[in-house]
Design a protein that fits this description.
The complex is a heterodimer of chains A (about 650) and B (about 150). With about 650 residues, chain A is α+β, with helices and mostly antiparallel strands. Helix content of chain A is about 50%, strand content about 20%. Chain A contains 15 helices and 17 strands. In chain A, the strands form four sheets. In chain A, strands 2-1-5-4-3 form a five-stranded antiparallel β-sheet. In chain A, a hairpin with a 3-residue loop joins strand 16 and strand 17. The longest helix of chain A has about 55 residues. By secondary structure, chain B is of the alpha/beta class. In chain B, helix 1 links the parallel strand 1 and strand 2. In chain B, helix 2 runs parallel beside helix 3. Classes of the chains: A alpha+beta (about 650), B alpha/beta (about 150). Chains A and B meet through helix 9 and helix 10 of A and helix 1 of B.
Chain lengths: ~650, ~150
């Protein structure tokens, strides 16, 4: 069953395959002709049937009329007992119309009374036409009456005929004739059979059918030719052209246009095709322009642009790369990217970073040129991915920063030299001022000794000692700066510390005519710090503030003022120490260099070490020192200290 | 009558030993601790010479110098400026001659040189002399003597 079901399916697909191989025009035409042939065939058949029916009907009418005419004559002859005439009559009637195949008169026992084709005295059997109309074969029940029957019968030799059978009834006034003999019951004495041959009709029909078939064939041929010509012209050629156009587009020839002037549906279709082609052409040309533009950017960039496949082989190498690295692209494309790295492990490290994100920005590494020179580069790596997300390689854009790095190093060196210069100048000034006093003191000692003036000698000596003291102080400060002392951290109440400092300094400030005020916010937390160092920080800042006031000319009733403030920090875990003065302030230039060692604006007094040490101490507490100032308006030094104190690391403690 | 010398310096010790040295050499010293006092004392005592410290708080030696030079009564008084910045005038010319060796520690000297150049541009006469600190009182006295006898 299964195989039986599969067979027709296979043949069907075979047919379908055969059909699909045919040209469209052939398929369309085949279908059209099939429909045409069916229509013509059906109409021809219908016409033939109608023709036959008409012919048979007229044959019937003719036979019936003839039969009735003969019957009338037969009855007359019978009534006149002219039985012998019957033969002649039948022969004459049959001859008069050659269309009659036979006219015969049968007695009721089957004896042929008259016939054109059979001799008198012959008899037909009870089961022969037309006896079977009344008698069932095998028995002979006499009928009282019989119908007039008209039927088409098949004769021997394939001939057809319309056969009219009319019963002959007993008539009053005639009972002695031989034909009544043996008729017991019923009135039927015999039968008149009139056979009208349909041979001519059949011949006509056959001729008609042949003619019809010829016409059908001719019209099919003509129809096929016309239809093929039409479809080929209207559809086939244009489809062929469409196919060629599509092929040319497939070969990237976008100049192809149909420009079909006809207005039918196919012309609209090719119009759409033209539009699509033109759009495709524009899009492709834009794409190609964009591609060229991008390639030009990559190519003309001074940066080193290299792409690498997922395995690590170089796939592109731009002009910038050629210029910086000295290789031609032919030399390196297909080579491993590692040849360009001074240290291939640096590439591995960069690629490892690429695993986490698809980008590594400004990775500092070194390339090596063809000649073996090193180039410092900033490498930016991006993973290239196909639209489906699979990595297809890596793009590396590197900037050669060798020159910049060299310049930067030179700049740093210069700045370091400048800082050293400032420091030396500062130390030189301090020493000169101290020496000045000592030299003057020594002069006075000499003068006192020469003149025998011990008071002057003593005064001079005091000056020398003062100078020695200043120098000692400076060397101690320098040592402070150079040395890192281990912090002695204790929870410290800075408010208490500030009050103590205020108390200690008030007199000095008053003697200089400067007001010193203390503003401490209540409830400040204790700060983990080295109290002694923080005290020295505050004292230094106050001392600076005092100097800043002494360097300014106060006008319009303004009085010199220094405010020491203690506040909660900006962050909750910080405390701020503020020292504000309304002294001479400083320029931006000075502010920038404030914490540089040995930088001083004070010719005779400062060592240039104060703020450098302050900064050092604050940093060691992991705090921050900031300065706000405007020239002529004063300055504010703000020290923020973390409440928890610095997290001391082992190595620092060791140091 | 002894010649009068005004000493303007904010450092007590310097004022003191300079006074002692001047007095010991027959001059009459007058002292002032800052620029304003210096101007006031100059007006009061009309000194024959002024020793002026360059670096002073409030009013620098240079600004006092400019003020003095602009006033008719003081413009001819010789001024010796005292500075801890060495060799300002000597190097001015070599610098102008195009010596470009980089010396990053020269910023103070540069500042001073600019100030002097500025004074010259303003038509003010330069100070008569610069004396570097530390001051040797005997050298100073010799210089004073050269200027005012």
């Amino acid at each position: 069953m299964g195989s039986g079901g599969a067979e027709p399916h296979r043949s069907k697909t075979g047919l379908r395959r055969a059909l699909s191989g045919l040209r469209l025009v052939w398929k369309v035409n085949g279908l059209f002709l099939l429909i045409l042939a069916s229509a013509l065939g059906i109409s021809g058949y219908v016409w033939n049937v109608a023709f036959e029916r008409d012919e048979v009907a007229s044959a019937r009418e003719l036979s019936m009329a003839t039969s009735e005419l003969i019957l009338t004559r037969v009855r007359d002859l019978m009534m006149q007992h002219e039985g012998g005439e019957l033969q002649d009559l039948v022969g004459r009637m049959a001859r008069e119309n050659p269309a009659f195949r036979d006219i015969r008169l049968l007695a009721h026992r089957g004896a042929v009374v008259a016939s054109r084709r059979e001799p008198p005295g012959a008899a037909v059997g009870p089961d022969a036409w037309p006896c079977t109309l009344c008698h069932t074969p095998g028995s002979s029940p006499p009928l009282a009456s019989a119908p007039v029957c008209c039927d088409v019968i098949e004769l021997a030799e394939g001939e057809r005929a319309v056969s009219v059978v009319t019963p002959i009834y007993r008539e009053p006034g005639c009972a002695g004739a031989g034909c009544h003999e043996g008729v017991g019951e019923g009135n039927v004495l015999g039968m008149l059979q009139t056979d009208f041959s349909l041979a001519r009709v059949d011949a006509l029909l056959a001729r008609q059918s042949r003619r019809l078939a010829l016409i059908l064939l001719l019209s099919l041929l003509l129809g096929s030719a016309a239809s093929f010509w039409m479809t080929d012209r209207l559809v086939g050629q244009r489809i062929q052209a469409l196919r060629e156009g599509a092929n040319r587009i497939a070969q990237h020839d976008f100049t192809f246009r149909f420009s079909d002037p006809r207005g039918d549906g196919l012309a609209q279709l090719v119009g759409v095709f033209d539009d699509v082609t033109s759009e495709l052409s524009t899009t492709l040309s834009e794409l190609s322009n964009a591609k060229q533009h991008l390639e030009a950017i990559a190519e003309n960039s001074a940066d080193i642009i290299i792409t690498v496949d997922p395995v690590g082989f170089i796939t592109t190498f731009n002009a910038g790369a050629e210029k910086v690295l000295g290789y031609s692209r032919e030399e390196v494309i297909g080579k491993r990217i590692e040849v360009l790295f001074h240290d291939p492990t640096e590439r591995e490290a960069a690629i490892a970073q690429l695993e986490h994100s698809d980008h590594v920005v400004n990775y500092i590494t070194r390339f090596v040129t063809k000649k073996g020179a090193q180039r410092n580069v900033l490498l930016t790596l991006s993973r290239l991915r196909a639209p489906d997300g699979n990595p297809i390689g890596t793009l590396g854009i590197s900037k050669d920063v060798t020159t910049e790095l060299r310049l930067q190093r030179r700049l740093v060196r210069t700045e370091r030299m400048a800082a050293l210069g400032h420091a030396i100048t500062g130390i030189q000034h301090s020493i000169k001022n101290m020496l000045n006093v000592m030299k003057g003191g020594a002069y006075m000692v000499n003068l006192g000794l020469t003149k025998g003036d011990p008071a002057m000698t003593n005064e001079g000596w005091a000056m020398v000692q003062h100078g020695i003291g200043d120098m000692t102080e400076m060397s101690k400060r320098m040592l402070d700066f150079a040395r890192t002392r281990k912090l002695r951290l204790v929870p410290t109440d800075l408010g208490e510390l500030a009050r103590r400092i205020h108390h200690m300094s008030e007199t000095k400030f008053m003697s200089e005519g400067v007001a010193l005020t203390l503003e401490a916010e209540p409830n400040l937390p204790a700060v983990q710090c080295d109290a002694e160092m923080v005290q020295s920080v505050i004292m230094d800042l106050l001392s600076n503030a005092l100097d800043a006031c002494s360097w300014k000319e106060y006008k319009n009733g303004e009085i010199p003022e220094v405010r020491l403030g203690l506040r909660h920090g900006e962050a909750p875990d910080q405390v701020r120490i503020e020292v504000r003065d309304n002294g001479e302030g400083m320029t931006e230039e000075v502010r920038k260099r404030l914490f540089t060692p040995f930088f001083s604006t004070k010719e005779k007094k400062g060592t240039g070490m104060g703020l450098a040490v302050v900064e050092r101490i604050v940093s060691s507490h992991e705090g921050r020192t900031t300065v706000e100032s405007e020239p002529g308006r004063g300055a504010a030094f703000i020290v923020s200290l973390p409440i928890r104190g610095p997290i001391q690391r082992e190595e620092e403690e060791d140091a | 009558m002894p010649k009068r010398v005004l000493v303007v310096d904010d450092d007590d010790n310097t004022r003191r030993f300079l006074s002692v040295a001047l007095e010991a050499n027959g001059y009459e010293p007058v002292t002032a601790a800052d620029g304003d006092e210096g101007l006031q004392k100059a007006r009061e005592f009309l000194p024959d010479l002024i020793l002026l410290d360059v670096m002073m708080p409030k009013k620098t030696g240079f600004s006092l110098f400019k003020q003095l030079r602009r006033q008719e009564e003081f413009k001819n008084i010789p001024v010796i400026m005292l500075t801890a910045v060495a060799g300002v005038l000597e190097e001015e010319e070599s610098q102008a001659a195009g010596e470009t060796m980089e010396r990053p520690f020269d910023s103070l000297r540069d500042g001073l040189r600019r100030t002097i150049a500025q004074m010259r541009d303003e038509g003010l006469v330069k100070p008569n002399m610069f004396i570097d600190k530390p001051i040797d009182p005997e050298v100073l006295i010799r210089s004073v003597r050269e200027l005012i006898g």
